[in-house]
Fold these 2 entries.
Entry 1:
Amino acid sequence: MEKFALSSGVSLMKDPILMASAMKHAVIAGREAYLAGRMAKKRYADPSSPLAGLI
């Protein structure tokens, strides 16, 4: 896997302006996810789907 700087990742694209916008949105989404906080930790797993009637 080759390593590129963000500037290379944007400037080498077919549409660099669109790629720069996508990167901006990715950074915003990551920050908002961080600020939203994580779920509370649980001692045991709890399935979100009902198990009754599946088999």
Entry 2:
Amino acid sequence: MSSLFPALTDGPAADRPALRFGERSLTYGELASAAGAVAGELAGARRVAVWATPALETAVAVTAALAAGVTVVPLNPKSGGKELGHILTDSAPDLVLTAPGEELPAPLGDLPRVDVDPAARGALPDDRERDPEDPALIVYTSGTTGPPKGAVIPRRAIAATLDALADAWRWTGEDVLVHGLPLFHVHGLVLGTLGPLRRGGSVRHLGRFTPEGVTRELSGGATMLFGVPTMYHRLAEALPGEPELVKALAGARLLVSGSAALPVHDHERIAAATGRRVIERYGMTETLMNTAVRADGEARPGTVGVPLPGVELRLVEEDGSPVTSYDGETVGEIQVRGPNLFTEYLNRPDATAAAFTADGWFRTGDMAVRDPDGYVRIVGRKATDLIKSGGYKIGAGEIENALLEHPGVREAAVTGEPDADLGERIVAWVVPADPQSPPGLEELAGHVAGRLAPHKRPRVVHHLDALPRNDMGKIMKRALSRG
């Protein structure tokens, strides 16, 4: 296998920019030396935890461990003590890597600590002979039905996903990526940090996401922006009063949204103001990336594009039989196969076995429809977003998008609740644009019925001050009462 980071082992000139976090930066030569120094501290380690703050030290630590062939367990600095304790017990890291002076919580108190110094110097190990199946990362999934599970991601999956995205997005070493994503998750760490390093390009991390930071970096030579829907919503809100932001977004080569569906009305507001379309992609911790809107394809709002090179994707019925009609209407569960998949859930052979079919397809739990030309549109999670009402299978996502097109709706979520007649009735949870004059049930039901179909209209509406969201901007529907 080739190196995960060819730009570090045999790539561009050593003085080429690699990483920048605020005012602190490293060239490729400096990154190789700093990572080499950290790698020298990892002799004998099998697995290390990384206290994954959005800082230069995190990127150096992960690069060092992967170059040394040591598995990385990224830790969310916002994790509570119980969750952190579970992750440490389950993954049993030998060390924790962190920035100097970082105060670590009690569960990490007994773990040997290595402080990462970006100014240190050492020889970077050559990782070109590593087994592609060796575990690179163990990333813990959010535990909606129990404690988080550790998805073991091999080196092969990282290389396959990043190379497939390079093909889809024409991503090269000339690109400069800007983002403000967390580094304990696949989006910010694998795509947003390892992605540029694999290409020989550079990444500028904002630290804290702000429209001003996006304007500054895109106006200063950055070519790509990665974000989550809440970030793009904030950009859409800021655009009318920020002509420099309009110009910066218009000049970007690629605007990419992920981790949750970007509402169609935010797509349209950004496109109307800038002339540029945000494109979406679809992935999970266990699969890394599955689909993407291609740079040379149609940026169709509400879709996540087509399967990436090397990824097989199918939709299946409830009985497991493949959906045979890709008509843009028939809903099925997404299943995928390919080199992008994780190996297993750590210490959970039962969960691993349950996640795969007998012939190796991974059950994503995501529901979608597929257009005749192959474009995939996610309609929600099987567990929380598939509503069976009046004999119809309805995806919550399309109703949410319809609600967001109503001028009186700022945010919206849709769930189902038991109904004696329909099986389930559609419930809308709405944050009104004007809390003093919220749109009522009759108005919103008519609005949805006129855009979609009468059986997709909400039967109940709840007005909220805000929707519960996690760190990645995803709405936590389990936190919404179902009455």
